[in-house]
Design brief:
By secondary structure, the chain is of the alpha+beta class. It has 2 domains: 189 residues, 2-Layer Sandwich (Beta-Lactamase), CATH 3.30.450.20; 209 residues, Histidine kinase-like ATPase, C-terminal domain (Heat Shock Protein 90, 2-Layer Sandwich). The chain has 9 helices and 12 strands. It has a 5-stranded antiparallel beta sheet. Strands 7-9-10-12-11 form a 5-stranded mixed beta sheet, covered by helices on one side. Strands 6-8 form a two-stranded antiparallel sheet. About 3% of the residues have low confidence.
Length: 465
């Protein structure tokens, strides 16, 4: 099991960059909101100026309408201009122009002002005003002459006011006022200062909060990362211990297998040496000497095989064996015992998949034990068949078949558990050790069948182990 490395916390430079960007974004938001608020307040103030002029002009127009009604008139030439002239006494008014409901010029003061009708955007049914900073009235009003009043270079308020003879009456005309805007410009400047001060205080307070919150968050992140690193180190140590335990378990299983395999050859050698010690035993020692030689060779082969597995476990050697190569190597180990028992070994490998070295070594030990048991269970001239294949889902399957008389009921009841052996000189540990070796190789042993016609064991290796 591989434990992933814990992610590193952001460095000091990265933290400062994040804080700086956050504060900058907050400053941009505060500036945008402040500008929107400033524009809204200016618009409200200008609208108040225009509404005041509209109220005064409408009152003067209503008074003039009452005076005309007393003499029996409903309209008089210059009525709109007269009403607006009375309203122009409002402080700071520099010039006026008046248009009737048909957008026809009705009069102006000073007279130099242009009589050009207003555009559709300026012709309105509600009062509105706009401010032009430091611009000549002459240029705004389109006057032809350089009159002193029109040449004034100062902030100007341009207001458009609808004219009605009474409340709710139809539109009678529109008046255009130009008003000195020094006081309003000063008010706007003061307003801008107050908004800038408030925005600065809000930004400073927000920046302090942002720095504190991000600093707290980074400290919490660093603490969490420290805990994560400690836990990752614990997991890695536990993983190393698990790997060591697994290797130790594998070594113990292989060692037990070696002891189990050595037991029978040593018993044979003991019988041979005992026969040599008896009177007359040396004259009849030819056949026993051959058997002892074979047992010795078998013992040396088993020791070499197990030592090879232990060496691979220790050094982590990397090599692969195909199923065919594995069958050939295993047959070479079992063939002397098969020849001695008069049993024929047959291989039927239908897959050329490769097994990594460690799994191949452990698999070879398991197959050799299964083949050895099959040879011992087979009658003379019997056949032991080893088949190997890979399944569509990537598993390896090896089967060992014999034509013996099958396993006893007592053996099948405790198939892969240590028990008393039914074979002469057996320890009852072979299948139990083979199952442990199979598990170390990432697989398991299954009993496919066992009856009077023979026994079949299957070794299944899972993929990706």
């Amino acid at each position: 099991m591989t434990v992933p490395a814990s992610p590193s916390p952001p460095g000091r430079a990265t933290q400062l960059t994040v804080v700086g960007l956050t504060v900058a974004v907050f400053a941009a938001v505060v500036a945008f909101v402040t500008l929107q608020l400033r524009d809204g307040l200016r618009e409200q103030i200008l609208s108040g100026k225009a509404e005041t002029l509209a109220a005064v002009a409408s009152m003067q127009l209503a008074n003039g309408a009452e005076a005309l009604a007393e003499v029996g008139l409903t309209d008089a030439p210059g009525e709109l201009l007269a009403a607006v002239l009375k309203a122009s006494k409002y402080r700071g008014v520099l010039a006026i122009r008046v248009f009737d409901a048909g957008r026809r010029f009705s009069g102006a003061l000073p007279l130099e002002l242009s009589d050009e009708p207003p555009s559709s955007e300026e012709w309105t049914t509600r009062p509105f005003a706009r401010m032009s900073p430091r611009e000549k009235l002459q240029a705004l009003a389109g006057a032809p002459g350089p009159a002193s009043a029109l040449a004034t270079d100062e902030p100007l308020i341009e207001a458009w006011v609808p004219l009605r003879r009474s409340e709710g009456a139809s539109l009678a005309g529109v008046a255009q006022f130009w008003i000195v805007g020094d006081e309003l410009a000063a008010e706007f400047t003061s307003l801008d200062r107050r908004l800038a001060l408030q925005a600065g205080i809000a930004w400073l307070a927000g920046a302090v909060v942002i720095v504190l919150v991000l600093g707290w968050a980074f400290r919490r992140l660093a603490a969490a990362n420290h805990i994560l690193e400690a836990r990752t180190e614990d997991l890695q140590r536990a993983n190393r211990e698990l790997v060591l335990t697994a290797k130790t378990s594998a070594l113990g299983t292989v060692t037990a297998h070696l002891i189990h395999e050595i037991k029978n050859p040593l018993a044979g050698l003991e019988v041979f040496m005992a026969s040599q010690a008896e009177p007359g035993g040396r004259e009849e020692s030819g056949r026993e000497l051959v058997a002892a030689t074979e047992l010795t060779r078998r013992l040396r082969t088993m020791i070499n095989d197990v030592v090879g597995v232990l060496r691979d476990e220790q050094h982590g050697a990397h090599f692969d064996l195909t199923c065919t190569e594995l069958a050939q190597v295993t047959f070479e180990r079992v063939r002397p015992a098969a020849n001695l028992a008069g049993v024929r070994l047959v291989a039927d490998i239908v897959a050329e998949a490769s097994l990594p070295g460690r799994r191949a070594n452990l698999t070879g030990l398991v197959l050799r034990n299964l083949l050895q048991n099959a040879v011992e269970a087979s009658p003379p001239a019997g056949i032991v068949r080893l088949t190997g294949r890979t399944t569509p889902d990537g598993r390896w399957e090896f089967s060992v078949d014999d034509r013996g008389s099958g396993l006893a009921e007592s053996v099948r009841a405790r198939l892969f558990q240590p028990c008393a052996s039914t074979k002469p000189g057996g320890s009852g540990l072979g299948l139990a050790l083979s199952q442990q070796l199979a598990q170390q190789a990432g697989g398991r042993i299954e009993l496919v069948k066992s009856d009077a016609e023979g026994t079949c064991f299957r070794l299944v290796l899972e993929p990706g182990v």
